[in-house]
Amino acid sequence: MKNVIEYVMQQEGEKNVILGIRGNDRDLITRHYWDFWNHETTSSDDIIWANDVVKPYLGYFWTTKEKLKNGLVNMTFSSLLNSDNLSQFKGLKGGAMPFARDYAKLRYDDIKPVRFLMTKNKYNFYNLGKITAENLSDYDAR
Q: Rounded distance, CA 73 to CA 89, Å?
């Protein structure tokens, strides 16, 4: 079975998003997280596991849309720099960067919007007052 990684995104407000990384291999999910961390998409200390017990595993981190888009561009550009096909971009205006931006936009658009984390309380709780014990030293308590 091939290890496939899927990204899911949950919108939280106008700017903030939670990016989930889902797959069957915890180590591969962790490596993808550190790839995002290395390209400054997040600054959290470690991935947060929503499910690390049964497959498919799900880890996530908080970021902003802007950081996510910039991180995808940097990750794509870094992959291009490590490939052997850089000669095809020689002489083009901007080099490989326009391709990296376009491909990163496709990657961003492929991220599925999913609600996988409850960030707000879905129940209404009410305070019923203060409960105190009787003072047994009172005259009435005898």
A: 16
Answer whether residue 124 is part of any domain.
Answer: no
Look at the alpha carbons of 105, 6, 15, 31 in this order and tell me if their dihedral is positive or negative. negative
What's the whole-model pTM score? 0.77
C-alpha 57/C-alpha 22 separation (Å) is 6
Pick from 3, 18, 25: nearest CA to 116: 18
Predicted confidence (pLDDT) per residue in 53-94, tens digit: 889 999 999 999 999 999 999 999 999 888 877 888 888 888
Q: How many CB atoms lie within 10 A of CB 77?
A: 19
Neighbouring C-beta atoms of residue 106, cutoff 10 Å: 10
Range of the domain at 63: 6-113
Domain count of the fold of the chain: 1
**Residues 87-104: tens digit of each pLDDT:** 888 888 888 899 999 999
Residue 70 located in a structural domain:
yes
DSSP string, 59-123: EEEEEEHHHHHHHHHHHHHHHHHTSS-GGGGTTSTTTTHHHHHHHHHHHHHTSEE---S--S--S
Q: Which residue has the tokens 């407000």?
A: 13
